[in-house]
Amino acid sequence: MHKPSVLFAVVSLSLAAQLAVAAPTVPDRLQKVDKLTYCSGMDSPPLVSFDEAQKPKGLTVDLGLEIAKRLDNKKVEWRVIPFSGLVPALLAKQCDMIVDQLFDKPERRQVIDISNYMYSSQSVVVPKGNPKGIKALADLSGHKVAVLNGSTIKTLLDAENDNLSKAGKPPMKLVVYNTDTDAFQALRISQVDAYGTTVETAGYYAAMAPDLFQEGVPAFSRILTGLGTRKDDPQLTAAVDQVLKDMRSDGSYTQLLAKWHVDSDKLD
């Protein structure tokens, strides 16, 4: 006679838990506004880019849209900013949040807050067949390498150039672009010998044109990556952290990573 009541109580608790998960606290300053403005470079597929109809797409785009949905169904306005200008734009209050792939580095943590949503690593893409025999960073000595301005890969390759110089070897020539798309294009038309980027973007281009490109240097420098908010906006940071936590709990986080084929990068 008591089993139905027990079952009802369990179901009620389950529904209550789901409702709690679905309702993070909306920051005070956003209570009376109907939209969130996101800054993004919008040129790092499969995380943030435009489709053929110039509509934002990608894992990080979907994540940003889900955050807006869970923060009282806010609309989203995208503000496209070159990657190197994302943090300055956020600090200048041109947007509420950076929705892109921000590597979680101490120097960034000094000026903004970062809400982690995945891991990432670096990679070096080369033409199919790897004609220059590039299999390690040291093999880039004397070669032209395309990189995104302000990116972690540029910092790492600058450090590798220091190592090459100390070893008496010619440094690589870094060709810096304002967008990942332009950097990749330089490799495609043979203006450079290699292209340094994240493993996600490297995998995307290699899958898109497997007969033209391949991974040269395998994944290295694994690091957390996340979304950026201002330090003077702690309520939004807390809300974003709560949404990400809830998404991991309700399974939607894992589903998103699977949708964009980056399951191996999920948080532990």
* Major sheet strand order: 4-1-5-10-6-9-7-8
Enumerate how many helices there are, as a single number.
9
Based on CA inertia axes, which overall geometry fits? elongated
CATH domain topology of the largest domain: D-Maltodextrin-Binding Protein, domain 2
Largest sheet: 8 strands, mixed
Structural class: alpha/beta
At the fourth level of CATH, the homologous superfamily of the largest domain is Periplasmic binding protein-like II
- For the termini, the CA-CA separation is 43 Å
Please state the second-level CATH architecture of the largest domain.
3-Layer(aba) Sandwich
* Share of β-strand residues: 25-35%
Order of helices and strands: HEEEHEHEHEEHEHEHEHH
Uncertain runs are 1-20
Rg calc? 21 Å
CATH level 1 name of the largest domain: Alpha Beta
Walkthrough of the structure:
The protein is α/β, with parallel strands linked by helices and 268 residues long. It folds into two domains: 24-120 and 225-265, D-Maltodextrin-Binding Protein, domain 2, CATH 3.40.190; 121-222, D-Maltodextrin-Binding Protein, domain 2, CATH 3.40.190. The chain is 37% helix and 27% strand. It has helices spanning 3-21, 59-70, 86-91, 106-109, 152-166, 180-188, 199-208, 234-250, 252-259, and strands spanning 35-40, 49-50, 56-57, 75-80, 97-103, 112-127, 144-148, 173-177, 194-198, 213-230. An eight-stranded mixed beta sheet has the order 4-1-5-10-6-9-7-8, sandwiched between helices. β7, α5 and β8 form a beta-alpha-beta unit. The N and C termini lie far apart (43 Å). 39% of the residues are buried. The model is unreliable at 1-20 (pLDDT under 50).
